[in-house]
Structure prediction request, 286 residues.
Amino acid sequence: MPLKSSSMPPPQSSRDRGVGQNSSPRSGGTPNSWADFTGHFRDREQPLASPWAELFGPLRTGVVDDLVVVGQIGQSLDGRIATETGHSKYINGPAGLDHLHRLRSLVDAVVIGVGTALADDPQLTVRRVEGQHPARVVVDPNGRLPVSARMFADDGVRRLLITAEGTQCAVASGVERQTLPAAGGRIAPCDILAALAHCGLRRILIEGGADTVSRFLAAGCLDRLHVVVAPIILGAGRASFILPPIERTDQALRIPVRSHQLDDEVLFDCDLSAQRVPVGLAKIST
Prediction:
């Protein structure tokens, strides 16, 4: 399907919450701030208003099952998420970072792999926009992440640690630990989603890193994929996606895509629902 371009003004951040050029005027009960929009987003009886409805509306309800799973990657023009030394702060500018925090504010849980947790020690909170902090989930098959990691901070937000069966590790106070079967040291994305659904977490953001997002993509476990491309060229570095090779271009995954302008960055909203596999409930141990 050909790429459809659309021009969407960058929505408000927490620095600009009044009615202005980046917000929708209040009329007929439509939201004029991001805080209003998030409230309407969770109330399925409320219609969604521009400028955010086209982009975030598909994340409201699932079309395959009752889960909605969105992956997010920020990259350079040449498809890199970091330099060869691993430096990645920040490839995306303020508009791209605001978009990531909007995604966090709309989901029940944000998921990262242990590699990203060790390298970046992220907080995974909503700081740049108004909204609720999501549950924080790390996929750590061998229990490598220390209890001092910032995502384990006891700040009233739900925290989950997913490890492989048989793993022995320390668990920070208040963190929910779930163990799942692993093959070759890896836990299947479908099993991870099923475990999160078992915990009542049904709108899920797969935030990183590249290996984790790629594994969910390859397994058919994403409904949407948001790729935010920054106008920089790194020349070398870590690739955005790590997928099995193909021999011919006609074997490439071709998907419906819409583009949105975020200041000087471009957001590609990829619809993967046609390939998404249904997810059931997992049998887990805690």
